[in-house]
## 1
Amino acid sequence: MIAWEGQASWLSILAQMARDITTIGDAKVFVMVDTTSERTSASNQIANAGADMSRVSFHVRATDTIWMRDYGPRYIYLGTDEAGNGGVRAIVDHTYNRPRPNDNAIPNYWGALRNEPVYLIPLVHGGGNFHLESGSPQGFGHATRLIANENPSLSDAQIIQYWRDYQNLETTLYTPYPSFVDSTQHIDMWMIMLDDDKVMISEWVNEPTASWAITSDNTAAAFAARGFQVYRVPAVRSGGTHYTFTNAVICNDLVLVPSYTNSTASQFNDDALAVWQQAYPDKTIRQINCQAIVTSAGVMHCIVMHVPTQSNGDAPGVYMTTQNDGGQYLPGDLIQTDWLFDDTDVTTADLLLSTDGGQTFPITLATGFDGTSGSYYWQMPDIATTDARLRLVLHDAQGNTASDDSDASFTILGTPPCTADLAEPFGALNFFDITAYLDLYNAQDPAADLAAPFGTLNFFDITAYLDAYNAGCP
């Protein structure tokens, strides 16, 4: 996601990025434009740069600045499984640390447009001051202590707890670079996560003993101690500008890396490219001249926000938000099942019931109802079980399906089943039921184990079955 803002040289950088992202990066680009006339000019410039225009979409929504990373939607997945898979996309927003109301409103606009929940974390913040590692069951976040200055009423522990609560991240706070070195004090100006075990950190080749160089060195050592592969890339200052090579954009198999024409910085363009190629030998590394924008204290990572793909690929994302905490229900209870979904082409839904803790779902409660409604009412059936779970199945127009199950078993206080009624026609006991029991017994099926000592089939089990048969069914 980008905002079509700034001087002509900045727009040229955006157009080049859109070209590479939509072609080499195999991704979409969402462009925020202020007016319909700006949409026309942006479309022409991006097309002329060579972008795949089928992957570019424009949204007429006013923004104040180009710095999308600082205010754009930061994504999480809700309802993932224990391995971190599945779930639906949602947005964690913050109050932008600049008086730019149009920028600050973008996450809510985007969430409403795409039917994605938006959660406001109570922090004043700029998104460039944040990196994260995914992880299971918990990930890790990284920010400078600029965040503490932006939120003076909160302790470090309270700030960290907010990120823990909203994003399931354990966050480390670092000493920011002095503002005379980097006016933003954002972590993305000197560090970037490459993978959950790889990181790239600036190395101050011309000022190795400066306090900010020591901050970078200490951070690199801390990651190495955690088992990370650490890559160091040059960083320099010239004329009051911080020239960084970590402020890059990673998009699928594409990496966009800044280059510069400044005489002090340009001598490290090739060195930086070599480090990136070493870090990502299987990705395409593209350099884009960012001299025009770096003097404004930001480069390419600062002017984009990533929008992740839905978790299930082509299939709908689905997260059932109710019936996840156990509990007890009576037959005939009116139940409301709610869900979130992540696919614009969802059509219908089915609701299934398991009585064995989710091993099987043989009971269909409802089928073919509106999958886009996000809510469905149904009646609890007369079944006796302490191990019930639900499965919600979503279908889309392309024939894809996905499902989400209850997180915990619940109890249905229904009429106990008739022990002796094992064969059709159910509801009447006859010779077929006796035959069915003997088949279970001869097969040493645990279902035939009706009497102590349990775990062994013997005469007492046969006697218990015959007693139940003679007692009949209620």
## 2
Amino acid sequence: MQAAEWRESIRNKKILVLGLAKTGVSVVKHLQALGAIVTVNDFKPLDENKEAQSLIDENNARVVAGSHPVSLLDEDFAFMVKNPGIPYTNPMVVRALEIGLPVYTDVELADKMTDATIIGITGSNGKTTTTSLVGEMLSHASNLEGQSFVGGNIGIPSLDIASQASEADRLILELSSFQLMGASEFKPHIAAITNIYGAHLDYHGSMEEYISAKWRITANQTSEDYLILNADQKSVFGERQTNATIVPFSSTSQQIDGAWYDQATEKFMWHEEVVLDRRDLLLPGNHNVENMLVTMAVGKLLGVSNEDIKAGLAQFHGVKHRLQFVAEIDGRRFYNDSKATNNDATITALDSFMGPNDRVVWLAGGLDRGNTIDELGAHMDKVHAMVLSGESAEKFQALGQAKGITAIAKAEWIEDAVQKALDLSNEGDIILLSPASASWDQYPNFENRGDRYIKAIEALANPDSL
């Protein structure tokens, strides 16, 4: 069914939207705009539910709030749209499936709403960065008609972009396992699974169920579609089958018939062709090699030239607050990893700067949750100076001293920390904010901490703007 025909088919149809939040509100508004008769069911009581109140006041929506009454399903709904965060064990979802009522997530509606080419990206790690990278690359693609829209789990509801897209356009969707699990009709032209590690097992129940949810991305693909798959994780997927044309990528193999990284020459390769050099890129870290390979594969499948692929990837600074390149000042490169609120995230950041000539000034500290940070010590070989703040500053100071670091300063606020980091640095250094701590002892959230860090760096670069 073409998109225009589907849009017309839901006019005056009764549709149940289960669960609000940002995605649910978007679904309600777009379905109403298409002439559907929408009922909203959200568990949060109405007097505490600003989203539901707004839909009543501004959209004249019918809202049932405060519980999930299964009796609501006695009404003649055409289908249910489930918020991705609501599990399939929810009594409303269980009953809907029992009576044969179709249950969709927002991404399936987006697929139905538009005839645009859909590129779907999922995985345990790297899907947000990869989705953003693909969007940046395709914005430089001189061979493609139409526009490229980025959305989905990345924070922009999929229907918000599907409603704008024409057949000549592309939707680049970040897809979570929550959105894919149970998806019965979703069909991207290009699908990618960056990698699979244990995650969200409380929702899925087991690793097998989690992998199966991710594999739903390819369930409806044909041989005319593509599945970009991590060749370094072949064993993870077991005997699962796909009708799609598989395009492998590898960050460790010497050569494959797909996208691969030559570790000896630091070149990104497509089959036997050199596409770009790692030295042209701003994003650090081995984990970003996989993200770049997936992005490059998408570009090659869409016929994007090597020059346009390089132009897009070389200009990408990273997702904001996630090991984001901010600026280079006086030969110092500043990176913002404010979202690193735990040891694992900061280990990834520190390990990203292990080159023979790398030297790091590390900005760390924040809310003290009482956890140990000793495991960070094994990843501090390139750290020669530290600037510490927040409740956990003393803990980080002890860690630095145990590693023999003598250049350690303390700062009350991030603006002071930036200046002290600059004072402790030398030309060629990396100045890295990766706190390994939450921000709540001093800042409302990690975004606020990161934004203030960026502004402090901008002030260094443009002192006359103050």
## 3
Amino acid sequence: MSEKNNKNQELLKLIHKYLDSNNVLALKSCLSKVHPSEIADVLESSTESERRQLWSHINSSIEGDVLSNCNAVVRNSLLQHMEPSRVASATNHLELDDVADILQDLPHELADEILLSMDEQNRSRLGAVLNYSADTAGGLMNVDAVTVRSDVDVDVVLRYMRQTKHIPENFDQLFVVDRGDVFLGALSLSTLVLASSDAKISDIMDVNHPAIFADTPAHEVAILFEQRDLVSSPVIDESGRLIGRIMIDDVVDVIRQEGDHSLMLSAGLDEEHDIFAPVLVSTRQRSLWLAVNLATAFAAAWVIGLFEGTIEQLVALAVLMPIVASMGGIAGNQTLTIVLRGLALGNVGDANAKTVVRKEVAVGLANGCIWSIVVAFVAGFWFEDAGLGAVIGFAMVLNLLTAGLAGAAIPLLLQKINVDPALAGGVVLTTVTDIVGFVAFLGLATMFLV
């Protein structure tokens, strides 16, 4: 267990101890010493009744910070018990992208009430972010970028910055724009401080700094930050006008969400799934995926039933069937994982899809040949039947070859028809490898052994 997990569990035990003993003073003292993100972890690790009890003792000055660090399910359960004016007050010091994240996950009626509770300036600035989907650059951005003109001197900019009343949090660079707010370049603080006081901004700005269009998908923003080693980047609209900035902390959130998304979808769950949700809620959320898997299991069982007579005559087939299916499933999932990662990073697409499929088919064939020899020898020695060993060995080659082809082709095809490969890829692949494995093994046995 990691040090972070240990710390979270120790804090959780301590807080639950204070809650159980109703030691309010000790509880408030404890909460005042920990970061809002750690309080959010505790809330996510508690039952719904414990969350409500703990939330009532959290200092109102950090409520917004705690909410911004909670996942959507936990956050919404807390917001439902708060007055809109209280939510507006709790979030008025947060960065606009964090407030937007909170509001976008709420029912429209409640979100509208909270917006109406805000002052006009904050409501207008927040509206600029809410105009964009949460999973785009526009949904990630903050609108508090610091801008300068290209025709002014360094000394003018430095004096302006000393006199300004508000510098955005995590401020690391200025953005150079023209009179129409069209983005021209970026100027890092280090360059500004080291430059001669009479130097023109146009002479020292970075005209090659990448700007991100507001409708760029969030995962593409994350890839750009990783490729260019960016700490922040300007966001522009379709006409090139600067409308905000994205910081690295926003991108870290995207990376984590993408990881959670792939992991949870592979089990048919939402990435915001609440592990401490009521039993009936969790049961309902998981039932659909169980039903889908049951249907595919019946399909595989139906295939086996077609060879019922063969299995009755040669019981060893029933013993060895899981080996063929298991090896195909593992090989296919290896390929599926690699291709899903390539799709997520943009390394796999239309330009090289055929190359990837051919390579994975070759890998499947090579592994099939290698492991078929091992399996054939073990099965033949175990049941003292060389013919049985040859049949399972050949079936292994066919199934691993199919696993390589299916593991590469299925996610590519699913993406073509706009179905998330992370959601459906695993269950489709398992069905294919199970059915092909059973048909190959039992079919060959019917032809040559019975």
## 4
Amino acid sequence: MPQEIPGLPAPLDAFPVYRVHERKNGSERYELLRLTVEAAAKPTHEQLYETLQALPAGTRNWLTRQVVRKAASIHDRFKEEALATAYHWCTAGLVRLDLLPPRHEGNPGPLIGWKLTEGVSSYANNQREQTEQETMSISAQLAEARARLADHPLVPLLLASDAMDIEYKSHLLIVAENAAEGTILAGRMSELRTYLTDGELATLLVARQQYRDYKPVGELARGGQAIVFSSRHKHTDQIVAVKRAKSRDDSAVRRMRREIEVAEIFGGHPHIMPILDASPDGDWFVMPLAQTTALLEMDQLRQAQQLKAIVMSVLDGLRKPHAKGWIHRDIKPENILKIQGRWVVADWGIGKRPHGQTSTPGHTRAGTLYGTEGYAAPELSDDAHKAGPEADIYSVGQLIGAILTGRVPQANIPLLPDDRGWREVVAAATAFDPQSRPSDVDEFEDLCAPLWHG
């Protein structure tokens, strides 16, 4: 018979569990060991199923994974909500609770643990059997897809798929079938394989916008609004760079979204930083891990061929965006990265969209400096919203000056090299009046051409 326990919620029945001790005189003494608590009203099979389906998938999977759980496991999962959750699930008929005897009048004893009810155990067994059947079917389909994808970046991942959970196997199957049909990254695979490793390409292919797919390894850089971590993709094993906003402040997220947008439009360009995966909310994204930055290579970049490589790469990385109306507005050594032996333009966070596509009208205010002092063109502190390609050309000119002189540029002061030819090029690129500079990257390349061949 149930025992009334003060403080126990009304829809629950408590059944005492005793240990019997036999006295010397032959009588018995009963020691209350614990209370088994269960729902007073037993739910129907349909009600039990509805309750289980209403739980978040992760919580439902955790609940049904083990028939018996100790209090420590429950408290680790639910923290301060552990006891309330236990009572709620017990009332719903999902679990039976074990409590210690009451320590104080009017309060139930501490929770020891719980055991799944028969209905939930039966549900869990059925789910496991169904999952095993689904897993066998998906594994067979993955093997078929693998046979069709010889020498494809996904093959190592497919070979390791046996160790994956069914959720990820299902996702991988969709990706693999699309890859086998040629419908994913159609027409771009050959191009992408020239400047992404197979591991990076596999990470791009299986991207599913979930931060939990990446395990941080170490911090690479910390700025005013974002932190960059080296991270390992848990399934491809590829080490990548994950950039995450330090807060969900509107300004920080706007910048991140702008970087994602540029990569979506121009990410196939070999000299624009590609993005492999990104949050749907825009508060984090994934890039290939850079080998180095221009800032760390300034001495080596003074060599003629090295200088040509970085300048031509930056100009090439700006060409298409400029043609579409995008202006970077923050070209500087820290934002030029080397991946797989090539220089790429990165960090378009304060870039200017084409006319009429401003995300927040009025956000760019006259009199506020955009860019980095010394590299930013004078007009970027006057009215950055009106800046054109000439603003980026100014920054490239200052970059060349910084490389060749080894000095840090000052605001609105051209950093002119001693070499006469480069002095004339940098002077032209950094003229105070934008109209006096080369009007586009092609004109600037023409200015540099004699020096490449000189």
